[in-house]
Amino acid sequence: MSSKAGALIAAALVLALALLPFVPGAIDHYYFSLLFFVFIYAIMAQGWNLVAGYAGQISLGQHAFFALGAYTTAILWTGNYLWGSLYETHPRIYYFDPVTMVLSGLVAAVAAALIGLPLLSKLRGDYFALGTLGFGEIVRVLLINGGDFTGGAFGLVAPSGTFDTLLPHYWTGLGLTVALAIGIHLLIKSRYGLALIAVRDDEMAASSNGVNVLRTKVLAFAGGAFIAGICGSLYTYYIFHVGPDSVLNLDWMLLPLMMTVVGGTGTVLGPIIGAFVMYVIFDFARIWVPDYHPIIAGLAIILAMLFLPNGLSRLKLGILKPYSR
Amino acid sequence: MTEIPSLQVLLQLTVNGILGGAMYGVAAVGLSLIFGTMRLIFLAQGAMIILAAYFVRALFQGLGIDPFLSLPIVITVGAGVGWLIYQGLFRRAAAMEDRNVSLLIAVGLMFLVQNLMTVIWGGNTAGVVTSYTASGIGAFGIRMSFTRSIGFLIAIAGTALVMLFLKKTLVGKAVRAASEDMTSAALLGISPHRVNAIAFSIGLALAGAAGVAVATTFPFNPFAGFVFSLKALVALAIGGIGNVAGALAGGIILGLIEAYVQYFISGGWTNAFGYGVFLLVLMLKPEGLFSRPYKKA
Amino acid sequence: MANRLLEVSNLSVAYGDVRALWGVSIHVDQGTIVAIVGANGAGKSTLLRAISGIVRAQEGEIKLSDNSLVGRPPEDIARLGIAHVPEGRGLFRHMTVLENLELGAFQPKARPRLREGIDKAYALFPRLKERAHQKAGSLSGGEQQMLAIARAVMSDPALLILDEPSLGLSPLVVRQMFTLIQTLHSQGVTILLVEQNIHQALKVADYGFVLKTGEVAMQGTGRDLLANPEIQKAYMGVLE
Fold first, then answer.
1. How far is B292 from chain C, CA to nearest CA, in Å?
2. pLDDT > 70: what percent of chain A?
3. What was the pLDDT predicted at A92?
4. Per the structure, how many domains does chain A have?
5. Would you call A323 and B95 a contact, using CB atoms and an 8 Å cutoff?
6. What is the pLDDT of residue A322?
7. CATH number assigned to the domain covering B7-284
8. Is A296 inside any structural domain?
9. Residues of A in contact with C53 (CB under 8 A)
10. Which residues of A touch B95 (CB under 8 A)?
11. Are the CB atoms for B100 and B193 separated by under 8 Å?
12. How far is it, in rounded angstroms, from Cα B230 to Cα B227?
């Protein structure tokens, strides 16, 4: 398939998905909310993909950035911080407020830059992964001990009376998914993208070719966090209740990671394909074998890793490489 | 917080910290071995420990076998399961350049085991209560729970045996060699798969030992394992990855930090301090507190 | 014809899209020293790594006596009798000198001779006995190289492969190294040697191959190659 035909098919698919809500009855259909969740996971997966697939740094802290974004949105919203009394008079002004969403992403990105600078300058590979895992647990303690500001162990609840349709969530999710795919595609072609891939493949060589390795890695890490933060914001507009157990659940790190790997790490479409396939598998398992569905999730990961280690988007058998470090 | 605690309180906290921390330590020793040869963070270790704890409970409730006397059974089964897990799940992935594959298989296994336990035993908190669960040993006003003391001895003995194996036997030396440089080890005829399988067997035998200690001392539920894995990772980082005695010491240090923070600051902050020390050690001394790095030739 | 120990025919190796070897054929006869020389990046180390199974051959055949080595993992090849001392020596730096030697006899067939092998190694390298309980990483460069070679001969290999044994050593130690290689040779060890120190290598070698950008450019007895004006000009002009 030529890339031109591929782009046409992708454009047609996006258009069909965007127009889907106009099909009578579609909005109320169960699959409509399923698609919204696929978008949420695709966005999260793309964020991890940027850090791990393109910058080569395994982050196990994406759930922390998701939570930071979600909490930022919830705090701004419940505290009426941003638009003051407008929240009362125009209850919809906050809703999908781009300023709040971007701020949510920024808070996550700034946190990532602050933690990423020391971590990435000192730690490599598994040590960096462990460090991000530790960071996530520290965020958990901070959120639980944040008093009224974060709502403690219970979290914060936004006024849910404002919800009436999933339509804006759906479109925002679809738009973000598509925008991210295009953005990352363009990014990889850019100068920065070349630097990113150079750093992933060989740090020493990249550095000797004038690439600022640390800055490149920190930018990617903050970029991945920004994506996770925006996604957390979008999710908050859907769930209304953010708490340590819901938005800081490890599933928000593990599932996108798994979806990316199933779809193909380091490819633009991999996270989207992976999110779709895996979410559908999980969801059907939840419907058909309700008691056993988490077992299916575990089995799916193991089977995918055993038989599809390179991901669906690059269907070929794993190349066995001899031991070397 | 304002009053100065008595010596007795300090000693009691220290004893509690050491006894509790040894559990993290023995889990960390298993992680250390597996990480050593496979460069894999075996995130499912905690889930396997809880699985062993349920197994201990089943032996106790079903067959009336005393939890501590079930130790040889649990360790043997653990070693067998470790061998099978390596051969069935990790063997292929171990030979791949991309180590994320192994990491994700471990994640999948964790999901699977956690939820299998929920399906079989339900999600509620369980425990093993024997005639001696509440008994303790006291001296100088300090009290040591009997079961925790035995758990501590199991941790020490398990770590000591693993160290003897690694230091004194040729196969153990091969495991250490492979941890340092797998390619060089293979050039000497040491099979990577065999070494990995041995590391997995010992790692899960230790998970079995830890399971006995957990079953007799803590209430547990199917999802308690992940926190255990995390704490074992912290212990591992403090002690130095690939350093067996250091892993046990790291666990004990973490136990002490938790005991002191819980008493002097607040129970809600114990984890933050534990992970804070973890991050500090990772950044300031990534090779761990107990390892001396060699200068590159 | 002498007894062929190792026969590499038409071997091609690639790393990803980059080809490192193009149809290379070499052979090593029983009891000889064979040197492979050439400039940096000519593919010398790749050839050795393909023989011992660390990298996989795309094409061609590698035979040790009657056993085909292609597709076998390194640990099997080691058990068939090839001891490869890799570039950088491959010592276990955190383990003691004695432990490194013991691991040299890890293979089942070598284990019964473990004690005897260590005594032999100590006789050959008294320095190693003095430092038996020191960490290998604390030894000097020359001592490390000696330990690596001593460890490799612990298994009594049919073929000893040495990758750049003189790398990073002082001229005096380099001379000791080549003396040692000749000593091992006189004890009947067959040796395949890769060297950038072309003059020294060809002097001790019975036969030599010159690799150039992944292909065999020239071959002949060590003496013939040494005398070859082309080689003198290309590789030894500055040195001599």
1. 10
2. 88
3. 65
4. 1
5. yes
6. 34
7. 1.10.3470
8. no
9. 322
10. 320-323
11. no
12. 5
